Amino acid sequence: MAGQVVNNQPTASFDFELVEEDSDHFRTVVVSSNQSGPWIDPTAIKLRHRLGRGPFGDVWLATHHQAAEDYEQYHEVAVKMLHPIRDDNVKAVLNKWYDLFSKCQGLEGVCSLHGITIIGGKMCIVMKFYEGSVGDKMARFKGGKLLLHDVLRYGIDLAQGIMELHSKEILVLNLKPSNFLLNESDRATLGDLGVPYVLLDIPFPTTDLPRRMGTPNYMAPEQWQPEVRGPVSFETDSWGFGCSIVEMLTGIQPWCGKSVDDIQNTIVNKQEKPRIPGGLPPTVENVIVGCFEYDFRSRPSMADILHAFKSSQNAVYHDGGWTGPDYRTVPDQLSTCGYTEWFLSKDSLQVGDAVRSRKPPNSSKPENMEVPDGTVVGLERDTERNGFVLVRVHGIHDPLRVHGSTLERVTFGLAAGDWVRLKKEDKKHSPVGILHSIGRDGSVAVGFIGVNTLWKGIYLELEMAESYCVGQFVRLKSNVFSPRFEWPRKRAGEWATGRICQVLPNGGLVVKFPGRLTFGDETSSFLANPAEVEAVSFNTCQGIVKKYQHLEDFHWAVRPLLIALGLFTAMKLGFFAGKKIRRSKVKKLNKGQNPAMQGDVQHDGHNSGWLSPKVANIITAATTRLWELRWSFGSLEDIAVSETTSLGVL
Ligand SMILES: Nc1ncnc2c1ncn2[C@@H]1O[C@H](COP(=O)(O)OP(=O)(O)OP(=O)(O)O)[C@@H](O)[C@H]1O
């Protein structure tokens, strides 16, 4: 096929053009280079033999021929040959690699990258050849596991390497023992870095999405569908790191023997976590437990992991127990306010910060508003992170002394965790999301449905949005005709109302429908875009019919229960009506015949009216109970919740 110039990239130090289409419909790319960039002439690479095959392609041992006027050299290199990429994406991928190469220059803990080339239509990453990997070393050991001392040593090397990449805004997303390469001094280096990250937004010819987001056994919950359940963030690598450490310690790959679908179901839906071996130094155990928090904001950062590993490295194993500088029991993952210590350590307060009391997790209302609006005037810290702070609150003379973990920083009116809306909508993603961080300079990071990674911008682009929390009832707005996610309808065709059971880090709502009876494989939970729903409560339901319909949303058993009650009452009424008619007939027949009997009938009729004393008592008791409840709970909604709970239907 005739040549076709695709791009002459002005900023990069290489140009590339597509010239020929091969049998696989992927075109051979000829690149001219000024030699200062990462581009390597494909004729300078001679593939020798394949070292292995992974989800992202094959790794080859190769020779790189370099020649100039005064020298000629041959280097042994490793070449990662990626799966074919659609030719209209070649430019985007090359640009991303170019960016990654320039960012990785000079980093110590990551595999040394030589350059990039394209061989046989496939993109190839040329890198330093290492003698082996941690995975290879494990395979040589009995039981496939490493000594704790080595695991801690490698863990420290790797955490440092990952932190270097994170400092350049690069996520690894594919941490696993076979990608931990060992150098001549037996130090672990990150190999294969950034392949899933580079391919994150690139459409692939194959629909096997999970495989290009990472290696299933090591993937975090948000990594399976970052656009839907994401975004992926630095702490996504904490999950992969935790999996790798567990494997190094046990010799068993996480979720070993499960299919890709099973793993996805186990991690994403069932929210199960890999099992952690016992007998670890408490600090290490604590940090690894934290790596498997479902919500990535609650996981430790690489700095936290590095700190824990370093502090445990000198611990000595004695008679089945750990002694050493950090010997202590594993602290609770959740602090008193319901957040993990890792969550709380992501932001530390400074004098001058505006603060307010922190809401409990998954709540839209503050539990206690000791500090509705204050300013930090003093810090009282025993360690770097934990400690009390002095807060000046308007209207109170002396500053309050409160624990830092109970406060959240408010900058330009926003605090991490707030629900926000983009003032200028972008059709590609939901306009409503959750604020993950706000810098003191006003820079913000937000999780939105439809964006793979955190959206970055400034606070001026955002406004506050309605917040949602677990337990709330929601339904699609009536003006939404084609929702982003599937949503069930009622029998009458209108959108069903469901209850939020989980809020994802991007504001995505996982909603269950207790008012619908599900059978067999029917999905019981649905996803919702927060921009497309509205909250439903007894107070917002207009009229008694709507209020009753909302009661039905609490549980599918409400309707059958009420029908049964109705039938029972009707039967009871029918029975009494029949009895009454019979008696009046008897009364008519006996009229004038037996005066003594007349008195009896009158007496009976007077006492019962049209209901028996028993039924009258039931009704009186029910009415009294209703008033009692109304008095103590205050709203019809609370009565419904309380009563249905006591009936055991919630
Ligand atoms: N630079 C390198 N030097 C030496 N061996 C390497 C190098 N890079 C990778 N390998 C080895 O090549 C083998 C195959 O690697 P590859 O990365 O393709 O597989 P993987 O790690 O299982 O999958 P993935 O594609 O997810 O990284 C592994 O054993 C790995 O340790």
Automatic annotation (TrEMBL):
User: Which residues are listed as membrane-spanning?
Assistant: 556-578
Pfam family of this protein, just one?
PK_Tyr_Ser-Thr
Annotated Protein kinase domain residues? 45-310
Keyword Repressor in the entry? The reply is no
Alphabetically sorted, this entry's keywords are: Membrane, Transmembrane, Transmembrane helix
Q: Which domain of life is it from?
A: Eukaryota
UniProt entry tagged with the keyword Membrane = yes
Report the leader peptide range: none
Q: Which GO terms describe its molecular function?
A: ATP binding; protein kinase activity
Q: Which InterPro entries match?
A: Kinase-like_dom_sf (IPR011009), OCM_Kinase (IPR053293), Prot_kinase_dom (IPR000719), Ser-Thr/Tyr_kinase_cat_dom (IPR001245)
The record's region (Disordered) falls at 354-373
Per its record, how is this protein called by name? Answer: Protein kinase domain-containing protein
Species per Swiss-Prot/TrEMBL record: Escallonia rubra
